[in-house]
Specification:
Layout (H helix, E strand, L loop, with lengths): L2 H4 L11 E8 L5 E8 L5 E5 L2 E2 L9 H10 L8 E3 L2 E3 L1 H8 L1
Antiparallel strand pairs: 1-2, 2-3, 3-4, 5-6
The structure holds zinc ion.
C-alpha cells in the first residue's frame, strides 16, 4: 500500500486517527507489512502483503492474526495483542488486580 493512501485512512469503527508502524517496505515506498493502531480504541489493523486488514471485529479471525503479531512482537514495544486491540503493560496490570 502506498504512503499517500495511508494518509486518507481512519479507524472504520470510530474514525480515530491511525498510527502506522512500518515493518517491511519496497524500494518504491509501498508498505508490504506493518500495522495501524487507532489512537482512540487501540484496535490494531495489520497490513499483510500490502493490504490493510480493516474489517470489523466479527469478520476477523484472531487465530490467523496471532502468528503475525507474534512475529512482530519486537515492534509492539512491550504491548500485547488481545481482542484485536493493542494492550499496554499498564492495562494488563489493571486487569490482573
Ligand atoms: Zn478506533
Amino acid at each position: 500500500m502506498r504512503p499517500e493512501t495511508i494518509k486518507k485512512l481512519c479507524c472504520p469503527f470510530d474514525k480515530g486517527d491511525l498510527t502506522l508502524t512500518e515493518i517491511t517496505k519496497e524500494i518504491s515506498g509501498n508498505i508490504l507489512e506493518g500495522f495501524f493502531v487507532c489512537t482512540i480504541c487501540k484496535r490494531l489493523y495489520p497490513i499483510v502483503k500490502g493490504i490493510p486488514i480493516m474489517s470489523p471485529d466479527e469478520f476477523r479471525e484472531f487465530k490467523l492474526e496471532q502468528p503475525l503479531l507474534e512475529r512482530w512482537e519486537k515492534h509492539l514495544n512491550g504491548h500485547s495483542f488481545a481482542n484485536f486491540r493493542l494492550v499496554g503493560p499498564e492495562n494488563r496490570a489493571k486487569e490482573l488486580s
